[in-house]
Amino acid sequence: MCLGIPGKVLEIFEANGTRMGRVDFSGIQKEICLAYVPEVEVGDYTIVHVGFAITRLDEESALETLALFQQVGLLDDELNADQHGAIGSAPVAG
């Protein structure tokens, strides 16, 4: 299963002409493509699906969703899915 996971944008940068960001998912940080959400800024939450941010999300909704995913055991599964390409690139060193 591949869910859209909320994450907090920590940094925005450009890589090969593409808007990218370093996004935190409950302590796991990944590089994510931000090309489809030009309105997202550092500190915002975004929903990420297969390495692409797809929408901006308010903090309350993001934290509620993360808590629900954690409660039902889906968060770890989804965040570790990157080994098979589901969330994005390898974790970024902090």
Throw out a few tags for this protein.
94 residues; alpha+beta; SH3 type barrels; 5-stranded antiparallel beta sheet; 2 helices; globular
Mind explaining what this structure looks like?
This protein has a single domain (5-84), classed as SH3 type barrels (Roll), CATH 2.30.30. It is 20% helix and 38% strand. The protein is built from 2 helices and 5 strands. It has a 5-stranded antiparallel beta sheet with strand order 3-2-1-4-5. The protein has helices spanning 59-71, 74-79; strands spanning 5-15, 18-25, 28-33, 45-49, 52-57. It is α+β, with helices and mostly antiparallel strands and 94 residues long. Strand 1 and strand 2 (18-25) form a beta hairpin. The radius of gyration is 12 Å and the shape is globular.
What's the gist of this structure?
The protein is α+β, with helices and mostly antiparallel strands and 94 residues long. The chain is 20% helix and 38% strand. The protein has helices at 59-71, 74-79; strands at residues 5-15, 18-25, 28-33, 45-49, 52-57.
Gap between N and C termini: 28 Å
Strand order of the largest sheet: 3-2-1-4-5
Number of domains: 1
Binned, the helix content reads 10-25%
- Main sheet? 5 strands, antiparallel
* CATH architecture term: Roll
Instruction: Characterize the overall form.
Output: globular
Number of strands: 5
CATH level 3 topology: SH3 type barrels
- Rg, Å, rounded: 12 Å
Query: DSSP strand (E) fraction?
Result: 35-45%
Mean pLDDT: 83
Q: Spans with pLDDT under 50 lasting ≥5 residues?
A: 82-94
Annotation field: number of helices: 2
H/E element order: EEEEEHH
